[in-house]
Structure formats: C-alpha cells, structure tokens
Automatic annotation (TrEMBL):
SMART domains hit by this protein: HATPase_c, HisKA, REC
Taxonomic source organism: Belliella aquatica
Name of the molecule in the record: histidine kinase
Keyword check for Transferase: yes
tRNA processing keyword on record: no
Coiled coil: 118-153
Cited SUPFAM superfamilies: ATPase domain of HSP90 chaperone/DNA topoisomerase II/histidine kinase (SSF55874), CheY-like (SSF52172), Homodimeric domain of signal transducing histidine kinase (SSF47384)
4-aspartylphosphate sites (modified residues): 55
Domain Response regulatory as annotated: residue spans: 5-120
UniProt domain Histidine kinase: residue ranges: 174-392
InterPro entries cross-referenced by the UniProt entry: CheY-like_superfamily (IPR011006), HATPase_C_sf (IPR036890), HATPase_dom (IPR003594), His_kinase_dom (IPR005467), HisK_dim/P_dom (IPR003661), HisK_dim/P_sf (IPR036097), Sensor_HK_Regulatory (IPR050736), Sig_transdc_His_kin-like_C (IPR004358)
Length: 392
C-alpha cells in the first residue's frame, strides 16, 4: 500500500506511540498525535491528512464521535475508530457518523494495515460514486433544462401552427363563399341561354351545347367548393352534430334521385329499403353527405350498363347500409390511403374527381359516431358497409 499521511488521536500516550511506530514501519507519515478532539482539529487546520485514527474516548469536551462529525463536515477525510469497547450502544453511536472502519483494541499490525487499506478504498469509491452522482445530476439538470426549452419551442411552434391553421380556414371559408355568388350568376345565365335556345335561332344547337357545358362545369366547381367549405369548417372544429326529425324513406329516395340526376353514365341503382322506421332523429346534412358521396362514387366509377346495389335497414337502434358496385375497384396497395384528403387511386384514368368525397364521408361518420368498412378489388368493384346510431 502506498504511504499515507495519518493523524493519530489517542488519549493514551503509550497506545499512541505504539500505533505511531507500527504505522511508520509501513512507511506511513504521522502528521501529528493528539489526545483531544480540539487538538486534532487544530492539527488538521494546518496539515493535510489522508486518514485519521480516532479513539472514541478522549479528554476534553469533544469525544471521538463528535470530533469525527466535525471532520466529516469540514474535511471529508476517512476516519478509523479505535476503541476497547464493542457494546451495542457504542456501535450505534459510531454507525451514525459513517466511519470508514472500526478497530477493537488491542489490535495486531496485519489487522491494522488491512483496516486502513479498506478504509482508503471505501473512501475513494464513495468519492468516485459521489462524483458520478454529481455528474449525473448535472446531466439530468441540463437535460431537464434542454427539455424545458424544447417544450417552450414546441409550444410556440404549435401556437404558430394553430394561428396559421385558423388563418387558412378563414381564407378558405371567405374565398369559397366569395365564389358562390358569381357561380350562381353563371349558372343562372347558362340556364337562361338554354331557355332562349328553345326558340328558333340559327345557333340553337351550339347555344345548347355550350350552355350545357357551362352548367356542368359550374355544378362541378360548386361541388368542389362545397367540399372545400366542409373541410374549412372541419379544420376550424365547426362541424357539429345537429339531430333533427326526418322522414327516412323520403330522405333515402331524395339522395338516390339526386345521384341519378347528376350521373354522367348509364348505371342503374337498385334501391332496397328494408325494415326501417318511418322517422328517425339524426343529422340530415351529415347523413346526406355520407350516402350521396358513397353512391355518387359507386356510379361514377362504374361502366355503362353496370348496376349499383344500395341496401339500407334498421337494426338494434342502428341504421345499416351496404353499397355495392362492380366498377374499377381500389388497388390493395393504395387502400390504406382511401380516406386521405385528395387521394385518388392510380387506376381512375380520366375520370374526374377531387379526391375529397371519401374523406368527407369518414369525417361525417366520425361526427355521427358511426363506423364504415369496405372491401375492394381492382377491376372487380367495391363494397361499403356503413353503421350509424340513430334515435327514433
């Protein structure tokens, strides 16, 4: 073991000299011998020690235990207790000061060296552990500060995003509303042109043709704006559930008639109304969006001469419906995106569409607290199952 600077605190002069001789035999340096706690503290104030050999019973006001408490607080030096007593009361007092070791008198040199070596090893490891703990606490403090700052940045970013989202929603709503008036005027003008074309006019066929184009284009644009307005309200959290009493069969027939009137191909809709209440309580507008979009898509993506089956019934307080088409279907690889905004499958070809219909359907069903499931194969068609809770 390497040489140590040792302070001996022992009130028995003979024991102190014997201890000094034994320690010096192992090349240790004795920086002083004190017979009281007060004198030990004076020596430590002037000389640096690596370890203190401390007798428990000392002359003066400070015994070995009180002196050790002061040394622990001021100098953080390992202390080895020397005592002829090993009773329970003494040991309890000793443990409270966290000593590095405890030696019972009389002791032999080999035992003493082993105790000193263990005391130094214990002290070194405790200080290394304390250093690691301090470093860990500093890292935790720094990480906590970094996390706090990151949270502040994230909060600011989220607030900014919310402000931008609100601004975007206001712009979308204002612009969409602004388009509604001129589109209505254009539509009225197109209808007037068609009415005038009923009279004899050399350009009658061209007037009818172009007026029809204008009308169809305006209707398509109006539909797109309606969809954009819907999502403008959705993003602003303004889509609410407003239940009203409605005549069920009349509502369903109206949806089918609207889809048939807007169809641009020759597709038959087979309507099957099962057992269903005469009236129900639900949100008419949201239900209309669901069934009109699903039926319109089924017709639009079917070929001339094909059929679409629309079945609807009530079961256990739920409106259940099934819409089946034999159209182009949806590729399996793309089905995970089915309800995403502006998603259009790669196999739609030249069929026009905004890619908003199914995302509107999903949003409406969520507000209605319903469910929608589907099964589709490219080239074979698509089946949608819709379940919506209602009140009678």
């Amino acid at each position: 073991m390497f040489p140590l600077r040792i302070l001996i605190t022992e009130d028995d002069h003979v024991s102190a000299l014997l201890l000094k001789k034994a320690l010096e035999k192992n090349n240790h340096e004795i920086i002083g011998i004190s017979d009281s706690g007060e004198k030990a503290l004076e020596i430590l104030a002037e000389h640096k020690a690596d370890i203190v050999m401390m007798d428990i019973n000392l002359a003066g006001e400070l015994d070995g235990i009180k002196t050790t408490e002061i040394i622990n607080e001021k100098y953080d030096i390992p202390v080895v207790y020397l005592s002829a007593s090993s009773d329970a009361e003494t040991l309890t007092k000793v443990v409270g000061t966290n000593p590095s070791a405890y030696v019972i008198k009389p002791f032999n040199i080999r035992e003493l060296n082993m105790v000193i070596e263990l005391a130094i090893f214990k002290d070194r490891k405790e200080k290394e552990l304390q250093k690691l703990n301090n470093e860990l606490e500093e890292k935790v403090r720094q990480r906590t500060a970094d996390l706090h700052e990151a949270n502040k940045e994230l909060t600011r970013a989220l607030e900014k995003e919310r402000e931008i989202g609100e601004l975007k929603s206001r712009i979308v709503l204002n612009v969409s509303h602004g388009f509604k008036t001129p589109l209505t005027s254009i539509l009225s003008s197109a209808q007037l042109l068609q009415m005038y074309a009923d009279k004899e006019h050399p350009f009658k066929p061209k007037i009818i043709k172009h007026a029809s184009k204008i009308e169809n284009s305006v209707r398509s644009l109006n539909s797109l704006l309606t969809s954009v307005l819907f999502f403008g309200k959705a993003d602003a959290n303004k889509i609410d559930y407003n239940p009203k009493k409605m005549f069920t069969a009349a509502f369903i027939n109206e949806v089918v008639d609207v889809v048939k009137a807007g169809a641009e191909n020759d597709v038959k809709i087979n309507l099957n109304i099962g057992k269903i209440p005469k009236t129900i309580l639900s949100d008419v507008d949201l239900l209309y969006q669901v069934f009109e979009n699903l039926l319109s898509n089924a017709v639009k993506y079917s070929k001339d001469g094909q059929e679409v089956d629309f079945s609807i019934w009530e079961e256990d307080g739920l409106i259940k419906s099934k819409i089946v088409d034999r159209g182009i279907g949806i590729p399996k690889k793309e089905q995970s995106q089915l309800f995403d905004r502006f998603f259009r499958a790669k196999n739609v070809g030249i069929i026009e569409g905004s890619g908003l219909g199914l995302s509107i359907v999903k949003k409406c069903i969520d507000v209605l607290k319903g469910q929608i499931e589907y099964d589709s194969d490219a080239g074979k068609g698509t089946t949608f199952h819709v379940t919506i809770p209602i009140k009678k």
